[in-house]
Amino acid sequence: MAAALTVAVLVEVALQVRQRGADAIALADQALAAGDGVTAIGRARDAAMAVAPWSPYPEQGYARLQAIADGAETRGDFDQAALAWRAVWTSIRATRREKDEALRLQASGRALVRLATRACEGSQTRPPAACAATTEAALTHDDLPALPAFTWLGLGAVAFFVGGAGAATAEGARRRIGWGALTLLGVGLAVFALARG
Length: 197
Known about the structure:
- The structure is a single chain.
- The protein is mainly α.
- The protein contains eight helices and no strands.
- It folds into two domains: 8-140, no CATH class; 147-196.
- The longest helix is centred in the N-terminal third of the chain and has 32 residues, at 2-33.
- The chain starts with a helix and ends with a helix.
- 27% of the residues are buried.
- The model has no long low-confidence stretch (mean pLDDT 83).
């Protein structure tokens, strides 16, 4: 029963994330058609971050972001190009997919350094090399907790939810104790994750 409930919850979460990706792509396309590049970047970023098993929407989100960035740079709109490339970079980092998206992460980093250098061309106070160095330093800084901390926190939440639901519906003291132990395990895993993060 608990395993079936856990699988059902995980499938529902995956379906919700997948739908969020589909909705984000549709909104990005609407914004692009209306000429609203900033909104299109935000929605494409949302799609890129909607990572779920077998979902095509993260890839579509990255494709939209790269197309927006390339088009903006071609038009000379370096601010919008930087915004789109930053959305690519932050989406990869926020979803902790640096290994899966290594080439795209490197391309976005190179583009951000290139755009920062262009933004400082002709500046009397900041030479382009200094702008590039500042951007490179910012791209190597990592404030996100390690992926295992998120994993333990997620497992703790699932154990807490399933244990609490089981304890609330269980008949007999022995079964309630078992479900209660699973609930406490969930709390313990969450505390462990937060302590490590």
